Structure formats: C-alpha cells, structure tokens
Amino acid sequence: MISFLTDIGVEDKPRRIEIEGNLSWEEKSRLRGNIGHTYDIHEKDYEYEGLENFMKQMTINKSCLLWKLLLKNIETLSSGTAQKFFEGEYRWKFYSEYSKAFNANFLKTLRQQAWLVDKNNNFRKPADITFAELFDSYIRESPNIDVLIKAIEFKPDIIDQLPEEYRNKLELVRNISTEDLQKLIAEQKKKDLLKPEEKVTDWTPEYKPGEVDIKIEEIEPDKIITSDLKGQSEKLEKGTSEELQDKEEDNIGADTDKKRIGEHGEMEVYLALRKEYQGKGAITETDFGFKVINQGNEELEIVWLNQHHNTGKGYDFVIKKTGIEIEYIEVKTKVQEAEELIEVTGTQWEFARKLHEQDEGEKYSLYVVINAGKSNVGIKRLRNPIKLWKDGKLYAHPINFKI
Questions:
Q1: Is it the case that residue 292 has pLDDT exceeding 80?
Q2: HEC profile of the chain
Q3: Domain boundary among 157, 180, 196
C-alpha cells in the first residue's frame, strides 16, 4: 500500500513549503555585497511542514524521527542540491538578474531550538552539542548526512577547534588525551592575544566599487626609454650612489593600506567583468563569481579566487569556457594616475613566464586599477606581461633572484 501511494505522488515525509521571504533591507543589502540595485525580483523562503507544532512537545523518539526525516528529504539529492534544500533565494535586478542564497526560515528554527538529545538525555541546541555527543539512537550513516551536520551548525568537535598545525600533528599522534588537546587550545588562544593589532589607516574611497561607470581598456605600453647611465663614476660623491639607488625604491613604500586598497581594486575588476559579460547572456551567481551561457551555448565562468578568503596564488581571477581555463587575471591597484612601481610577486611572474614559454602567454593579464576610490577610476589591462617585458615595453625593478 505504501509503495502504491508513493508511486502516485503521495509524500512519505514532510514537505518543504515555499513561503514569502521577509528579509530586512540590511540583509538584502549584505547579500548584494552592499551594492545598489534596480529592484527586487523575489524572495523565496521555505518552511518545513508541521515543524513548529512538532517541536512544541519534543521527546527523544520525536527528535530521532525528525533527524531521520530530514535525512530522508536529502538522501537522493546531489551534494549541491542537498545544500540548497536548506536555503532560500533572493533575486534582484541590476542591469541583469542576480541571485544569492540565504538560510531558510525552517533552518533558523532547527538551529535555535533545543531539539537534539545528548547521551545524558538532555535536550540541546545544535550549537551546544557536538555530533559525537548525540544520543546513540540517531542515524549516523546516511547519504548527505555531512550536509545536514554542516547546515544545522553543530558545536565543533574539540579536534576541529585546533589550529591547523596541531591537527596535522594529531594525524600522527591520534592517542593524545582530551586534556592535552584542551591545553593546546588554551596555548593557541594566548598566542592570538599577543598578536599585534592590524594596522588601521585613514584611506577612505570617495566612491564605492560600482558607483562609477568604468570600462576595461586594453593598452600596449610604449617602448621604454631609459636615461643614459654612462659617466656615473665622474659624478660620484660619498654616499651619492647609495642615495640615488634608494630614491626610486622609496616610492614603492608610499603605502596607506595595501590590503584594503587591493580588495577595493579586486571588487572594481569583478564588477567591470560582470558588466562586460552580462551582454553575452543571463548571469547566474556562483559561490565564487558567476556563470554565463552565451549565444553559442557555451558556458563562460568567472571565478574570483579571493572573494571569500585570500586564497589565490599567481592570479586573482580565472575565466573558463566550457570548463577550460582561458584567461588568468592578476589585479594591481593604485590610488593615483602617475606612474609608480607596482609589486609583482615571484609566484605571479613565474606563472606568467611559464605560460609564455608554452605559447600561452596571452592567457595571463595584469589588470591595473588606477585612481582607486575616485571619480576618475579606470582599469588598464596588460596582456602577456612577459612578452611586453622582453620587447622592452614593461619596466621591471627591482629584480630579485633565488639561489
């Protein structure tokens, strides 16, 4: 009988029911990255059928049943779709359509209520209990159980709270006691308190990313013309040579806040790329950028490696076509238009060089944001910097080598 009912579409578990979203102005602004928009398209939120009433008189059996039903809802889904089961969607219009996920209303209930039971038969909120402390009757193996564990935000296990270096050591020494683990955590907290505070500076942009209409301008620098360096020995005085050498290098250090300025520049490039690609098709937001399906039915994807954390090595953005990487972008940012020396790391330069040697140098570009935070902000693109350097069109100073 049950098999017949499910075959004709009768649900054998509670349903996720769509409801009207109720996001505040601040929440929607945060989801948009604090960028303006033309209008909202929709806010899709979700409830879990009967959850509020089910939780009013919670018992151990009911708690284990709810856990089982949640797992049953997601057991046949892919990992990504299972994650979306616990999310609502906010969609808005700004030239094109964009969307971002947020925690569904029923997930907030699951996180805020004390419905999980520990081994001592106490009801606890997810944030107050680790997965290992759950009552023995809970299912512990099921497809996508890791998605559920992550969604309701269990209290991290003591091992997960350790710094990475200690976690790596723990792989080698698995028999370490709980007391020793707690001591290591306490020691790390003391070290964190002794770390110097991050430098705070006065640099404040006049305009936020996206407030000024800019476009990416491809440039090819003119051939470098250097001064005639002959006859220097005739002009030498004590200390002069060293002072002349340092004068140009000192300009590199005219630094307000490299981190904040760099992040500002990356956001400008991201928005400029998004504006450029929205003409190729409808934009779909991803966790690390966006995707576009062009008229040739090819998928173009822009991946911002540093959107959430500073993880990019050698470049900040990569552009893919049907899954194949076709361009690498390293962003450099300056707050003025006048020429200055811009730092390029060995990793970035070496990656660009290898691409050049493989006849793929055109894949690597330096995007230089000039006048960051001002009304005359612009973006200059230097494609294949190794070729420009070899052709004498890109000046590199200082040069460091490793031996």
A1: yes
A2: CHHHHHHCCCCCCCCEEEEECCCCHHHHHHHCCCCCCCEEEEEEEEEECCHHHHCCCCCHHHHHHHHHHHHHHHCCCCHHHHHHCCEEEEEEEECEEEEEEEECHHHHHHHHCCCEEECCCCEECHHHCCHHHECCCCCCCCCCHHHHHHHHCCCCCCCCCCCHHHHHHHHHCCCCCHHHHHHHHHHHHHHHHHCCCCCCCCCCCCCCCCCCCCCEEECCCCCCCCCCCCCHHHHCCCCHHHHHHHHHHHHHHCCCCHHHHHHHHHHHHHHHHHHHHCCCCCEEEECCEEEEECCCCCEEEEEECCCCCCCCCCCCEEEEECCEEEEEEEEEECCCCCCCCCCCCHHHHHHHHHHHHCCCHHHEEEEEEECCCCCCCEEEEEECHHHHHHCCCCCCCCCCCCC
A3: 157
User: What confidence tier does 38 reach under pLDDT thresholds 50, 70, 90?
Assistant: confident
What pLDDT score was predicted for residue 248?
39
Angstrom distance (rounded) from CA 208 to CA 35: 8
Strands 364-370 and 378-383: antiparallel
User: Which of these three, 115, 135, 157, is where a domain ends?
Assistant: 157
Same domain, 130 and 224: no
The single-letter code of the amino acid at 301 is: E
Say how many domains are in the chain: 2
53's enclosing H/E stretch is: helix 51-54
267: amino acid identity, one letter: M
Domain span including residue 322: 216-390
Q: What is the pTM of this model?
A: 0.46
Candidates 221, 233, 263, 261; CA nearest to 385 is: 221
Domain for residue 207, yes or no? no
Dist. CA 46–CA 17, nearest whole Å: 5
Task: Provide the terminal-to-terminal Cα distance of the chain, rounded to the nearest Å.
Answer: 76
Q: Alpha-carbon distance 401 to 6, whole Å?
A: 69
Q: What's the CA dihedral at 179, 122, 126, 76 to 10 degrees?
A: 110
305 touches 311 (CB < 8 A): yes
